[in-house]
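Continuing from the previous page of notes. For each protein in this section, the sequence appears first, followed by its structure tokens. Read the first protein now.
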Amino acid sequence: MFRGATSLNMDAKGRLAVPAKHRDALHAQSEGNLVLTAHPHRCLLLYPQPAWEPIQAKMMGLSSFDKQSSALQRLLVGFAEDIELDSAGRLLVSPVLREFAQLEKQVMLVGQGSHFELWSMDAWRAQLQQVMDADAMSLPAELEGFSL
């Protein structure tokens, strides 16, 4: 279970040091084999490879003749890259994915249960501001009656 938000510094080569608590869990789940891909919100998704495989299978089961399905396939599967944690617990973000998500030196790694989101700091702040706006705080119908 991946949770929590962590500010990380990316070096000039695009490497990020994964926090130790997550590094251990990633090694346990996938021996450090990960998948990094694009998300429509202009962030990146980081999955342990075994958690990614059913998602990719479901995406590829969609009709390539449907414009929305094929657009999602191009984004999620087309940008997907197999990566590994190195011996120092770092992962390498390719220039293509860095450009897509507009990642610079400071990024946010945000746990989402089964995976992580990787955001540029500017996009993360804008996303948080959007969530805090009164209109964005309405809950979807499936969460009607939900309380914390």
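Done with the first. The second protein uses the same format. Note its length before scrolling.
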Amino acid sequence: MSTTEELVLLDFWPSPFSSRVKIALAEKGLTYEAREEDIFGEKSSLLLKSNPIYEKVPVLLHNGKPVVESSNIVYYVDEKWPSPSPLLPDCAYGRARARFWTDFIDKKMFEGGSAIWRSKGEELELAKTQFIDILKKLEGAMGDKDYFGGDKFGYVDVVLIGLSSWFLAYEKFGGFKIDNENPKIGAWIKRCLTRESVAKSLPDPQRIYEFVGEMRKMNGIE
């Protein structure tokens, strides 16, 4: 990155969506300044100005210009800095497939997991079944490959692994183990965590579990 370029990430430490961006930036060897936002309190004027539509993180400011929505930011980072290795596939079909599964993950995963910790009784059992089914569909998409893009860590892997720090909370509040229900995803998570870009970018799952526990109390679930 040119010394004249500046990257600032508007962040919130538990955000799995911010984690995606951090992983993508780390994959490209880019340095940036992370600025923590108070999502539950008074949001900064910079955040409100940079993302007036959704007023949420992450926002990547590149030389002062805001890029918003995490999967879009990852796409921007990959296009702007194709070296040392592109995250998206070279072929049009591969890129289309990556966009499809990114859309599936964005629409299903976080809400599906949130339904687990927000629920009790029969609703919890249904939410757990639906979440496991989402992961089974993703296992089918990965097939017998090590990563979603094939043999190489890529765009869809970045998008999904950013969410994985929340999985411990889903397991504990849902009473299940991903390693048992979705062993291929469990193995994939362990494989991804061997990458420095992933390991250093994800928050501690135990800390996320405690954070979710506090949110349950705030919402009168416990």
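What the second structure shows: The mean pLDDT is 96. The chain has two domains: 7-80, 92-218. We return to this in next week's lecture.
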